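Weekly modeling sync, notes
Attendees: S.R. (lead), two postdocs, one rotation student

Agenda item 3: backlog of single-chain predictions. S.R. asked that every request posted to the team notebook include the full sequence so nobody has to chase files. The rotation student volunteered to paste the first one in as an example of the format we agreed on. Action items at the bottom.

Example entry:
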Amino acid sequence: MIALRGLKIDGQRIAMRRLARFAVAACALYGALTVLDAPASSQTFPGRTITIIVPYPPGGTTDVAARALSVPLGLTLGQNVIVENVSGGSALIGAGRVARSAPDGYTLLVHQMAIAANVSLFPNAPFNVEKDLTGVGLVNYSVPIVAGRKSLAANSLSELVAWMKQPGQRIKFAHSGIGSQTHFCAVLFARAVGAEIELIPYRGGAPAVTDLIAGHVDLYCTNSAGEQVKAGALKGFGVASKDRFAAYPNLPSLVQSGFADLDILFWQGMFAPVATPKPVLEMLNAALRRALADPKVIRNFEQTDFSVFPEQEQTIAATNSFLHQEIVRWGQVVRVNHIEAAQ
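Predicted structure, as returned to the notebook:
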């Protein structure tokens, strides 16, 4: 009887030791899987609200694009997608916030060509665009118009050039931030004409257009004044592209008019922290591409004279390749024209 009781106790001890070893192994396996799954996976993403950071004030073209995308993105992903404006610092503040955020797909950036130009304009920025961010997809594009206040004496491109070259002419040329397409267009156009201008900076496109309509500035090279030009509230003198633009058939191409450097594509894209897991990036890209195919989104963009990028240019790889090309191009423009962030 005593021997049987001892066997029973020994059996329990063996069973307990086996159970303990199993528990330790299970915990180790769970920990390993948790590490592999961090910070997010396609199986768990998205589990909460996604935020799109716009590094400009409300009302501008980048803000409009982000808000047009937020609803269809949310419907596809099954989560709320909100837009937050984090402006200032030549768009470095908002972009930097995304670059430093957790790479989990919950903080995204919708930016424009300034993200490429800023690499050369601000070499000491607290983040590296190509090392800290990755493309999610290219969104849309347009071309800028050289627009002037309604009271301007000139009525054509040739008359504008003659007016700008008059001795002692004081020209107030607006732009919506250092490194923006409006900034580069102003600098390149003035250099091509051979005129001296006073650059008037604004914190976004909307306030710049408002002041141009009010006559507080003379000129603004932008893609956000198309409706005002069509309505006659502003004068349009030409489009900064190699060809005429269908939305403005009566405006000449600046390149065709002899200004070879004035081929400026204003584009917008979506970005995420570079370490975002590939499955999450692919899910975001698929949702973005679906949104860009939405007729409502396309009409929204067309109302502001934007076109959606072709499907083959909406991929993650195409976006990163295009961004690199733009960094190289605008870096050369900065160096050749001696453009400095202090302007």
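Discussion: group reviewed the output briefly. The mean pLDDT is 88.
Action items: rotation student to repeat for the remaining queue; S.R. to check formatting next week.
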